[in-house]
Amino acid sequence: MNRPERAFPRQEIRLERRLPTYWRVTFDLPPVNIFGPRETLRLGEIITAIEQDEQVKVVVFDSAVDGFFITHYDFLAPLEESANIPPGPTGLQALPDMLVRLSKAPVVSIASIRGRATGVGSELALASDMRFASREKAILSQWEVGAGLVPGGGPMARLPRLMGRGRALEVLLSADDINGDLAERYGYVNRSIPDAELDGFVDALAMRIASFDKQAIADTKQLVDVASLPRDSEIKPEWDAFIAALGRPASQKRIKALMDRGFHRAGDVENRLGFYVGQLGS
Amino acid sequence: MNRPERAFPRQEIRLERRLPTYWRVTFDLPPVNIFGPRETLRLGEIITAIEQDEQVKVVVFDSAVDGFFITHYDFLAPLEESANIPPGPTGLQALPDMLVRLSKAPVVSIASIRGRATGVGSELALASDMRFASREKAILSQWEVGAGLVPGGGPMARLPRLMGRGRALEVLLSADDINGDLAERYGYVNRSIPDAELDGFVDALAMRIASFDKQAIADTKQLVDVASLPRDSEIKPEWDAFIAALGRPASQKRIKALMDRGFHRAGDVENRLGFYVGQLGS
Amino acid sequence: MNRPERAFPRQEIRLERRLPTYWRVTFDLPPVNIFGPRETLRLGEIITAIEQDEQVKVVVFDSAVDGFFITHYDFLAPLEESANIPPGPTGLQALPDMLVRLSKAPVVSIASIRGRATGVGSELALASDMRFASREKAILSQWEVGAGLVPGGGPMARLPRLMGRGRALEVLLSADDINGDLAERYGYVNRSIPDAELDGFVDALAMRIASFDKQAIADTKQLVDVASLPRDSEIKPEWDAFIAALGRPASQKRIKALMDRGFHRAGDVENRLGFYVGQLGS
């Protein structure tokens, strides 16, 4: 558990109860907001708190790390740490379990995306009820296919429902970086907002919804979910496919090549992951 | 049935058979095109005529009242008037019944939206086959959650199929006014058209479709509907949720607060309902 | 099989294996890329090759004919030629069979659309995994309803899943030409690209995907398809409806009127088919 190689002053996911009805969850895992087994456990606690609290109506997810919303899963963490996390209440593995529960919670979840939302970051945004992006500073991507992997946290189920099959296949199979403007045109996010206005916009929307009746919110959301939310049985095979792909030589070779170039460290590979997965060769 | 307090020179929903193949339905219920039990009965007659006529191919819905397409349900009408309307042929309550039947009719329905399409107005537009909006003068909204209500006429089933779950949840849970530009970007309407061109555009499209073969139109529409139209069983619980919410103190308090400020009368509350529901407090 | 009346120097659908992993299929059927029974057989061979090859990862469809990607079905070919083609492996008729198989193949298909993609051309593009259009030179349409027909190759199932029911009904029931800009706004194509950049964009995307791992591509695509691809049982009735409509006087009269004006020949009717079907009268 001791990781001196990235001993940053703080390494946390913060839960701030700005109001009893309006919470903020802030990812502060410098330098690049990598999400691994420890973060899985921490986010799981927060999702449970969201589900159980009787007052909260809105929760906003954002980042305190410049350039990164949340990036990909932690491929340096010992595999046992991930494997040892038990499945969640839905019966799904921990990460897809908490994403599914976030979507179903009787609380409005809003992803406020500034910087890279790659892999897990994109998957958390897609599991949230709404997504707003910085027009200049947001990058969304599912980079996994570029590394010989299959995404594991729901995007094959969720992206086609937001943007249609063709654009979803482009996002997933190009494995490339999508900027704020294109993310809005594709429906990857609700809207892209000029960076200087993003925080004010999201805060005003959250405050507005927090002023409404919790039961009216929850009942309306539940009726939307009837036809628009994937069933758990659609989410499950994605994680299985991710684990299977992780064990294949194609992904091991590509992940190693990325590591050799600077993956998992501050620098150009993390900043332009879409470019680098396109340079690995077949 | 006598309502001297809004005794306007005319209070009607007009059906004009412009051609045997092309009909227009015009809402003329000044000052703000509120839709209540009387309008439910009248629109029901028109929907039945559309279903039974052998020649009509296209019907356009528009408004003769400046600033309003159709706004919300009539909360001043005696509740018995609404309760006394029997369910329709689908077994659904009268309003969702006629919206469902409009979607299934072997006739093309087009909503031409100028002014506010709020609540029932948005729901009628969503049940129509196509929606075109004045870029400058259309406002769409589902304001209900802002008043502690749950919308009752189908938008939880229909909006996510048009714009994806995230944007649908934003429309429904922000309960805010959506202008013509954003309505087009979100797919709430097919297109927003410069106001000066809207009538000509819709008329030309209607005339064009009216020149085509009725069976080719009906067969094509029926095949589109197989996968894209919600089943009646998805629509039904929305009305039930609306009625349940209407009986709760949260909505009663909010509707009363809106009435105190000028709801149901010409003026700023009706003109900017999205703003006002955001001012009621929790 | 001898058709001296359109004896062009070449009449073919070319398969070029640019790399073992990256194929191009080019429609070269001047003057207007009409697609008939002979092309059905040829494209069927190509789809089978795509399914069976172990190396190919990406196939791009494009055209060598100025102004036309692929236009409509060949109404001059003897009906026996079409009727004699046996159903395909899916049990569907030959054309819908091969479109369905293309969508399901473990290979990424990309339609690069320059010129008219009308009828069969639109249907092939919709069955492809991704669609990119020349902003200036692409026209997409389902013209069939304008000729008293019902489209037969899947668009009633596929269009609403890409753009929602309202825009799909507009495309199908207006039967009008859709330019590159509107096609992008509606999600008919992934993106419209300035014509000068289209070929470079598509080639770079294809080369990029061809550098990725075939199994990661195939597994990811298969998971996207679970919820986003129509079942074969939705596609089948479209072909049946097309054949039924083709036997009705309404379509025969309209097709004859189009033939009298120049249909199936180079010229204004083929160039502006959307306009001409609007001139036939009811």
UniProtKB/TrEMBL annotation, chains A, B, C:
Coiled-coil residue spans: none
UniProt xrefs under Gene3D superfamilies: 2-enoyl-CoA Hydratase, Chain A, domain 1 (3.90.226.10)
InterPro entries reported for this sequence: ClpP/crotonase-like_dom_sf (IPR029045), Enoyl-CoA_hydra/iso (IPR001753)
GO molecular function: catalytic activity
Pfam families noted in UniProt: ECH_1 (PF00378)
Protein name in UniProt: Enoyl-CoA hydratase
Native organism: Bradyrhizobium guangdongense
